[in-house]
Amino acid sequence: MSNDPRLFIDAPLGNGQAVPLSREDSHYLINVMRRDEGDPVRLFNGRDGEWQATVAKAHKKNAVLACETQNRPQAAVPDLWLMFAPVKRQKNELIVEKATELGVADIRPVITTRTQSERMRLDRFEIIAKEAAEQTERLDLPVIHEAVKLDQMLEDWDENRVIIYCDEAGDDGARPWGGDTGRASQALGPLTEMRGKPAALLIGPEGGFTPEERDRLRSLDFVHAVSLGPRILRAETAVISALTLWQSVCGDWG
Amino acid sequence: MSNDPRLFIDAPLGNGQAVPLSREDSHYLINVMRRDEGDPVRLFNGRDGEWQATVAKAHKKNAVLACETQNRPQAAVPDLWLMFAPVKRQKNELIVEKATELGVADIRPVITTRTQSERMRLDRFEIIAKEAAEQTERLDLPVIHEAVKLDQMLEDWDENRVIIYCDEAGDDGARPWGGDTGRASQALGPLTEMRGKPAALLIGPEGGFTPEERDRLRSLDFVHAVSLGPRILRAETAVISALTLWQSVCGDWG
């Protein structure tokens, strides 16, 4: 695996193409990474695969790269969305970073009754997703959406996409030691039946879904519950665990 | 599930037992959580299960609780160790927190050739593990060990415990698009053969294991490689993903 710096660029990539960098990318490459003219860099734009390039102009504010050969053709991540109820800022950002690493195509914040924070800076999410994609070797960025209300989202839902929901902070006593009132009993089994289907993982807020929300989710044919074990996971852990399980059973970890 | 505050206490718990709190726990319970005399609290000590208690003396520095009834008998997490090459402080702490949430029994930092940071504050790790255990409803704390060198660890190894290693940052080109030179091809398959065996997950440093380390690991019968997919995960993500997979295949998520 190459250790050359890797940048996402929103510009065409191709043989001989000159690629001017933004001020931020120029600063990163020339000042932080200390690259000079002739040094190798890798580029991707979400459309044209990954390209090998070299620094043509090592300017600290307006560097220019020269695109040379394609390393890999474009490839998509699996058709998986992440829908999560926003938590605190730092944790939201961790969720966006990890979802990008774990190969999510679409990130959709969802406002539930108990969601504590609705203020999100989508521009920060975009920067975090770009950096995570650069580091994780994926060839595209996840699409990041504005937050929507859970009810609205369910009303507009295309039923061809299954929703897999994890209700970590459920207050219905549905823990192994508290009786079982409908909580999914295991993680892997239910997922094997969802292979080959577009999917969306839904992670509830720290306070859990309300009983009404849970009833509504359970009443819908395209919604399936998955268990994340007997301990209670924080929201960001639940996101990473659920994405891991989906990728290994239904995604591209096979 | 109860929303009563939950504290780990290193003291005997039993019917009618008075439990004096440390200064830190007193501050947390009385000042931060604003509990008063008579308010319910849950306690665990890693030996006597979880107990329901009430605040007997709401002192801000020296609170005392009265233990009443046992909520749950003592139960252990699965016999799983986490061995990880330390990374940056914040990420090490995230690793300890998540390993605790995900039900690891033992946490062992391992120094490899490319480990960048060997300075760790085990006292900080202890505090983080305590808080995570309190929140995650487990009944014990993970045991946190001093760092050991990878070579020494392998020499002293009890071969009854399998080592499952994830080499995310491998530099041997062992990625789907870079040819395969021995990298595990999938995650779940190899794990199913390790059910019922004590296990230790080994996560390499950000720079990956060296070729020599990798050769040594591969030469040992009790060491098995597991893939965490085609994208490259940061160390802390690899920890969470690997723990998730082990818990769902071999642990108590079934």
Question: What features would you describe in this structure?
Answer:
Two copies of one chain form a homodimer. By secondary structure, chain A is an alpha/beta fold. The first copy, chain A, has two domains: 6-72, Beta Barrel (Ribosomal Protein L25, Chain P), CATH 2.40.240.20; 80-249, SPOUT methyltransferase, trefoil knot domain (Alpha/beta knot). Chain A has helices at residues 23-32, 89-101, 122-136, 150-155, 188-192, 211-219, 235-249, and strands at 6-8, 18-20, 40-44, 50-57, 64-72, 80-84, 106-111, 143-144, 148-149, 162-166, 199-203, 223-225. In chain A, the strands form two sheets. In chain A, strands 6, 7, 8, 9, 10, 11 and 12 form a seven-stranded parallel β-sheet that branches. Chain A is elongated and about 60 Å long. Mean pLDDT of chain A is 90; it is low at 171-184. Chain A binds chain B through residues 1, 3, 71-72, 98, 101-103, 135-138, 169-171, 173, 175, 177-178, 186-188, 227-234, 237, 240-241, 244-245, 247-249, 251-254, and chain B through 1, 3, 72, 98, 101-103, 135-138, 169-175, 177-178, 186-188, 227-234, 237, 240-241, 244-245, 247-249, 251-254.
